[in-house]
DNA sequence: TGTTAGCACTCATTCTCTTGGAGTGCTAAC
DNA sequence: GTTAGCACTCCAAGAGAATGAGTGCTAACA
């Protein structure tokens, strides 16, 4: 009777060595390499036996008969779930890492202390920096507005029949919409509407406004009911239409640094996905549903975006202020430097929330 | 003594045939092909002689000894300057072209009649449509704001120490900025500032405001001088910072449809240029300085953007309203379908200005 | 004098064949 | 359980050789 093959500690070590080596070189790794590379002091023959087992268990694959092994998706998954933690605790390269980290944080702070008064610009800059630092493609989704509270709303007549509606949300995100109205509106009317809107709507989220706006307002509109209705509907529509997800991407061309991604077909699909940013919404939705995990790692087919099946994606959710949440993502080859990416993402996440709050209180907007 | 080689009519016809054939196939074209292709009824041997002359004149080149000829930049230039006009007048394919054109216009109108209240969205949509229709990469620059007149300006206090400044420009382009101020501002103060700003600044261009704002306003600020100064400076700065060029791109991945552009190196550079949109400002500046020509064609090295030296670029300047000008560009391989692109660009140009004016008058904003 | 047929020549492309090397799997010995 | 040794596989790189598209040149023709 065959002895059952199980994943013992030695196999783990060997697998880890294979993966680490492959992440560095991008080349299939052979038994001889591992034999020398590890402190296990085993001959290549022994390693070969173990590798055969690892392959049987599905953690590694052979591109072709006479080649070394490369990690399978399952292998990466094991690595990411179990082995990365250990390695993070190890002290190897710790100094170099710290230096890198500091440099990164400095760079971030540079962005954040520059007078960036628009969240849009800030996020775009962050995406760019992240892409530069990681050498992968990046994306950042703007905060979800529907959960964001309205801080201030103002109507003003720009010209006859056209009313400008400005909405300021928590975090000083500004949205505007020009609304066409049929009726005449005098200054007094506008003033009253402004007061009405501000007293009724402020502090509510867009979502809440959208749901209850009409009924709620009708009760208080009084003699201006007709007029208010018109504007109301327009505002409701304006709010709805402002509620779509902004997505910023950067570093799309970084994928050309990885041969396994840079053939025309794949590259074209990938870059197109990054250009047509809306194709990334799946990723954001999924990543946010897993939010409690903090950092989410998708390997190969796990990614909710089909065009990225040959990539790995690491995402994090940031929070600027209460409820002002968005997603950051790094897209690279499956052999990406998960450790570094995870660490960098944690940094960005912290910096983003921290800096934004600071910015919000010291008034240096 | 050698007889001087000149570009007679027959040579022109042959050159034209070569170029047209090359535009279609993308393959070097040989003498035999031309011999059959044209109505000149000349043997391939004769064509060969003529081709040798054309090469000597610099209109065509041979990729290698035993290959056919392809047009040189000089050849394309001649074609674009002289031959395209003739062909445009010809009736060949005219019907098919008309159908195409109609389809295109319909598609554009679809975009334009949809409620697109933001110029940003409109232009992004146009870029996308243009990319889809031409199969090349496209860019559109937003209108230059510094020549645009201020229509309406409004300050309002969002929270203590923070004032929201909303500017509406001609064409209902809305810009906002949150301004931090040290001093207290009561409602009355804001009201007065608003009146002051609107009466003084409306109708001026950002440029004009920027230049004369301080001196002009100081005269009328009266007792609020100190306060006004602060806000003024902030507004001036806001205006300046809003004055940078918006650029929208689309269809970057279309370049993968042309093998001569899709090797990693070139593709990466190109796509990067399109991603880092600011690298395109050269192109816009140059194209606008040549504006009187209507449509501008850059072939290969003529392009003011270095990374596009293997491409051709066709640009047009559009005008939404008085002074609201921007640039549209199509970026493709040198063997792009100049005729089609020029025609399409003319359409877009017309549609853009026409539709926008309509939008502006029928109130369906 | 312009045009053409014919021929030798060039050169990219494609194919096959060979070689080298990296790496494996298996077996037998320790 | 571990290891040395060996046969085997298969990719990658290189060398010819064949193919064929296309040219340049020359000599003959109208």
Q: How would you portray this structure in words?
A:
The structure is a homodimer. Chain A is of the alpha+beta class and about 375 residues long. The first copy, chain A, has three domains: about 10-70, Winged helix-like DNA-binding domain superfamily/Winged helix DNA-binding domain (Arc Repressor Mutant, subunit A), CATH 1.10.10.10; about 95-145 and about 245-360, Beta-Lactamase, CATH 3.30.450.40; about 150-240, Enolase-like, domain 1, CATH 3.30.390. The first copy, chain A, is about 50% helix and about 15% strand. The first copy, chain A, is built from twelve helices and ten strands. In chain A, the strands form three sheets. A five-stranded antiparallel β-sheet of chain A has the order 7-3-10-9-8, with helices on both faces. In chain A, β5 and β6 (about 175-180) form a beta hairpin. In chain A, α7 (about 185-200) crosses α8 (about 205-220). The longest helix of chain A has 24 residues, at about 340-360. The first copy, chain A, is elongated, with a radius of gyration of 27 Å. Chain A starts with 8 loop residues before the first helix and ends with a helix. The structure holds a DNA duplex (30 and 30 nucleotides).
């Amino acid at each position: 009777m065959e002895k059952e093959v199980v994943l013992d500690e030695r196999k783990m070590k060997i697998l880890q060595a294979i993966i680490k080596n492959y992440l560095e070189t991008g080349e299939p790794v052979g038994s001889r390499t591992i034999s020398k590379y590890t402190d296990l002091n085993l001959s290549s023959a022994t390693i070969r036996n173990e590798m055969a087992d690892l392959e049987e268990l599905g953690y590694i694959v052979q591109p072709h008969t006479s080649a070394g092994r490369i990690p399978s998706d399952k292998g990466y998954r094991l690595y990411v779930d179990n082995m990365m933690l250990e390695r993070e605790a190890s002290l190897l390269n710790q100094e170099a890492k710290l230096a890198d980290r500091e440099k990164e944080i400095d760079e971030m702070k540079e962005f954040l202390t520059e007078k960036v008064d628009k969240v849009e610009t800030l996020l775009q800059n962050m995406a760019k920096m992240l892409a530069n630092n990681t050498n992968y493609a990046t994306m950042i989704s703007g905060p979800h507005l529907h959960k964001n509270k309205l801080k201030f709303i103002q109507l003003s007549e720009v010209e006859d029949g056209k009313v400008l509606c400005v909405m300021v949300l928590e975090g000083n995100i500004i949205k505007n919409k020009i609304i066409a109205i049929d009726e005449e509106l005098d200054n007094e009317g506008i003033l009253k509407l402004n007061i009405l809107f501000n007293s009724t709507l402020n502090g509510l989220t867009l979502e809440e406004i959208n749901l209850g706006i009409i009924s709620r307002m009708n009760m208080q509109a009084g003699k201006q009911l007709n007029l208010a209705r018109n504007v109301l509907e327009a505002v409701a529509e304006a709010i709805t239409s402002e509620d779509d997800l902004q997505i910023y991407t950067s570093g799309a061309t970084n994928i050309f640094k990885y041969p396994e991604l840079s053939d025309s077909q794949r590259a074209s699909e990938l870059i197109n996905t990054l250009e047509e940013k809306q194709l990334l919404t799946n990723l954001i939705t999924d990543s946010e549903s897993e939010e409690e995990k903090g950092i989410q790692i998708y390997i190969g087919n796990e990614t909710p975006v089909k065009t990225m099946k040959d990539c790995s994606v690491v995402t994090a959710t940031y929070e600027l202020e209460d409820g002002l949440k968005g997603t950051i993502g790094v897209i690279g080859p499956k052999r990406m430097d998960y450790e570094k990416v995870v660490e960098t993402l944690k940094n960005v996440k912290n910096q983003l929330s921290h800096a934004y709050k600071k910015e919000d209180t010291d008034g240096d907007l």
